[in-house]
Write a structure and sequence with these properties.
The complex is a heterodimer of chains A (216) and B (96). With 216 residues, chain A is mostly helical. Chain A is 72% helix and 2% strand. Chain A has one domain: Arp2/3 complex 21 kDa subunit ARPC3 (Orthogonal Bundle), CATH 1.10.1760.20. Chain A contains 7 helices and 2 strands; from the N terminus they run H-H-E-E-H-H-H-H-H. In chain B, helix 1 runs antiparallel to helix 3. Chain B starts with a helix and ends with a helix. Chain B has one domain. Chain B has 96 residues and is mainly α. Chain B is elongated. The interface between A and B is large, with 62 and 53 residues. Strand 2 of chain A pairs parallel with strand 1 of chain B, so a sheet runs across the interface.
């Protein structure tokens, strides 16, 4: 989901940065509030951020000779709340942009929006909906992680399609083209991320897995 | 055993485990093209006249990139393991 440095036109890079900025500011406040709340919340934040750092470092082989990485935002989203995730995802994206030349500083806003905003809110929405219809929390956490992963990559496809619409078919055709690039590789990896997140959630079950309050 | 005494082995084990898993996956996915690169190639195909207007802040050799990804995996695994270790062993007691 990392849009490569310089691969968004200047105006789009500025626009996505502006769109992501309020989420980043709100997130920084949410993280600060969470840090002040309790030691448990601090540990949850550390675990959530580290989970994103760990999973996004794993280049997994997938179908058709391709490889990609999971996003890891699903677990943190249900553990500390979606509002905290832009800060955690932003730190990981900065680490990768500066040290690994993976992603970029000019595409940070766009990447933050897909990884730190859309993915986590998709995870929280999925988790709450599934728990409301009396699904097991372990299954709900897994589905939340899977859908967060897919939503992140769908958003990246849309961002690229908006920047590079096709001469015939426009944004829709471009979106389908970019989505096809990601879909075949990401579908099995997203399912795998869901299973892995479920296992981690289960391992934590009964310890500190009460989802974050709605306001977080 | 106290948390203070068990944390270093947990951290060390997680770091080694993180590096081992990341290295194994790197080996396994060697030669496979990443989706980020595929997306970049698609941009080149869709908009052949588009010129990248900024270069990455640094360019790594493939070997450097491999090591940096291993470092990322080790960091992530270590912090995750230590945080989960603290949550499991005493988080509920330490709640303020």
């Amino acid at each position: 989901m990392h849009i490569v440095e310089g691969y968004l036109p200047f105006s789009h890079a500025v626009a996505w940065t502006a769109i992501s900025a309020p989420f980043a500011v709100h997130s920084a406040r949410a993280v600060r509030q969470a840090v002040d709340t309790s030691r448990v919340m601090r540990m949850r934040l550390a675990a959530s951020g580290a989970f994103v750092l760990l999973l996004s470092s794993l280049k997994l082989p997938s179908v058709a000779g391709s490889s990609s990485h999971p996003t890891g935002t699903g677990l943190g989203s249900v553990l500390v709340g979606a509002a905290a995730m832009p800060t955690l995802a932003g730190l990981v994206l900065l680490f990768q942009a500066i040290l690994l030349a993976h992603g970029g500083l000019t595409t940070l806003g766009a990447n933050l929006f897909s990884l730190g905003v859309v993915g986590p809110w998709m995870a929280v929405g999925t988790y709450r909906l599934m728990v409301r219809v009396r699904c097991s929390a372990v299954v709900a956490a897994g589905c939340a992680a899977t859908l967060a992963d897919l939503a992140t990559y769908a958003t990246t496809s849309l961002q690229l399609a908006l920047a590079f619409p096709q001469s015939q078919g426009g944004v829709t055709a471009a979106f389908l083209k970019f989505a096809a690039v990601f879909a075949f590789t990401q579908l099995p990896l997203a399912a795998l991320e869901g299973v892995f997140t479920s296992l981690v959630w289960r391992a934590l079950h009964g310890v500190e897995t009460t989802p974050a309050p709605r306001s977080a | 055993m106290s948390r203070r005494r068990t944390t270093p082995p947990v951290a060390l084990g997680a770091a080694i485990g993180g590096v081992a898993v990341a290295a194994m996956l790197q080996q396994w996915s060697a030669g496979r093209q990443g989706t980020d690169d595929r997306a970049r190639e698609t941009v080149d195909a869709v908009a052949p006249t588009y010129e990248r207007w900024v270069e990455p802040v640094r360019k790594n050799t493939p070997a450097q990139e491999r090591w940096l990804f291993l470092l990322q995996g080790a960091l992530g695994a270590t912090v995750f393991a230590v945080a989960v270790h603290h949550l499991r062993r005493g988080g509920s007691r330490a709640s303020e």
